[in-house]
Backbone:
């Protein structure tokens, strides 16, 4: 995913357009792994293999996402870990370690 795409993406839940980009793994201007985080509704959206998974809560895959987030847990800011939807990232971390 091109970093500049962050400027035009909106949160699927509330259409908020100011999403924070947390980069885990990048290749020049491309984000291969990371998170998009909506500060308005505290939802996070994973970027897996360069693809932002921006779907409604009822289409999210907890198992798939928890495996991914566990892999990058050290790169996720604490305030997001303790304050996130649709899944609590701190809880994911505890259950898988
Ligand atoms: Zn939002």
Residues:
């Amino acid at each position: 995913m091109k970093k500049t795409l962050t400027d035009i993406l909106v949160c699927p839940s509330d259409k908020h357009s100011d999403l924070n980009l947390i980069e885990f793994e990048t290749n020049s201007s491309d984000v291969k792994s990371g998170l998009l985080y909506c500060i308005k509704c505290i939802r996070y959206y994973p970027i897996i293999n360069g693809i932002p998974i921006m779907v409604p809560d009822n289409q999210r895959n907890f198992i798939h996402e928890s495996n991914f987030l566990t892999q990058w847990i050290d790169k996720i800011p604490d305030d997001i870990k303790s304050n996130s939807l649709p899944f609590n990232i701190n809880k994911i971390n505890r259950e898988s370690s």
The radius of gyration is 12 Å. The pocket of zinc ion is lined by residues 11, 13-14, 16, 38, 40-41, 43 (CB under 6 Å).
